[in-house]
Design brief:
The chain is built from nine helices and ten strands. It is of the alpha/beta class and about 300 residues long. The strands form two sheets. It has an eight-stranded parallel sheet with strand order 2-1-5-10-9-6-7-8, sandwiched between helices. Helix 1 (about 25-35) packs across helix 9 (about 295-310) and helix 4 crosses helix 5.
């Protein structure tokens, strides 16, 4: 079985305006890196749009419908601001639906045994989106939508999300915190936007926040993962591992102050793959979150997918 790559050209038409860090060039950089010869054997699939039913398992239905109504119908209407950081354009409707739908389709493919694991190169990202609020460049919480899709459609009882984006996934934590069969592990710079992710916040014991001080690099990141996160993940025995793959902890990223390198993303991917192999027949789905230096994003995403393919 191969690794699948889920993406769609519609995700390029989510226009956030001139100079916005979450730009279409991010996806172009990732897809460009994955066109190298070493990635020839990726099983490339189109991300389908999410259904209202899939979105409403996570988000309040009035919010889903408000988003659909708020997004401009034509390019001539320009951009609409959902919060201080999150803008949408006429192309954002299909992009947001395919971002969430692509992760659900990746879960379907992995659960059916069609592919070993999958990476979703989609945008907008998702882990900041709350039940009834867009924020931090995120419209729908793609990873949470996929988690509840796995539960409802495939009967997966215990699902783990590992989030190594440099920013805490406040939306994902809020949706998981009261459900002991959903595990959320986040490594992130602390303190930093959005101000959540305090290591003291544990939910029902199913939340692990690994706050890394500004300037932390490979040694601190790997120690936190090895000593705390990976043992907890192994003990949880997930039926599916989901990954919020943000690459903005890279030393060259402009939005934060961690000093991670491509080798760190390969390292953590290899270890997550190993846990998935031991716990759930290797079933792992990863989706793109942050990463705003285009070169670092491209090389880091390539390192991540290379490690998935080597599983």
């Amino acid at each position: 079985m191969n690794t699948a790559l889920f993406s769609h050209s519609a995700c390029l038409y989510h226009d956030t305006g001139l100079g916005h860090p979450e730009s279409p060039d991010r996806l172009r950089a990732v897809i460009g890196a994955l066109e190298a010869e070493e990635f020839t054997w990726l099983d490339r699939r189109e991300a389908p749009p999410a259904t209202e039913e899939q979105l409403a398992r996570v988000h309040a239905l009035p919010y889903v419908r408000w988003i659909m109504a708020r997004i401009p119908r034509t390019e001539a209407e320009g951009l609409v601001q959902l919060d201080g950081d999150t803008l949408v354009s006429a192309g954002s409707r299909e992009a947001a639906l395919r971002a969430a739908g692509g992760v659900c389709a990746a879960v379907d493919a992995v659960m059916a045994g069609e592919v070993r694991n999958a990476f979703c190169a989609v945008r907008p990202p998702g882990h900041h989106a709350e039940r009834d609020r867009a924020m931090g460049f995120c419209v729908f919480n793609n990873i949470a939508v996929a988690a509840l899709h796995a539960r409802v459609v495939h009967g997966v009882e215990r699902i783990a999300v590992v989030d190594f984006d440099v920013h805490h996934g406040n939306g994902t934590e809020a949706m998981f915190a009261s459900d002991e069969d959903l595990l959320y592990i986040s490594s992130h710079q602390w303190p930093l936007y959005p101000g959540t992710g305090n290591p003291r916040d544990r939910g029902l014991g199913n939340i692990l926040n690994l706050g890394l001080r500004p300037g932390s690099g490979s040694a601190e990141f790997r120690a936190a993962m090895s000593e705390t996160a990976l043992p907890l993940l192994e003990a949880f025995r997930p039926g599916l591992v989901l990954v919020s793959a943000g690459f903005d902890g890279h030393a060259d990223d402009p939005l934060a102050e961690l000093d991670l390198l491509e080798a760190d993303y390969a390292w953590i991917t290899e270890r997550l793959v190993a846990v998935a192999a031991a716990s759930c027949q290797g079933r792992l789905v990863s989706t793109l979150e942050g990463g705003y230096n285009l070169r670092a994003l491209a090389t880091s995403a390539a390192a991540h997918v290379r490690a998935l393919m080597a599983a």
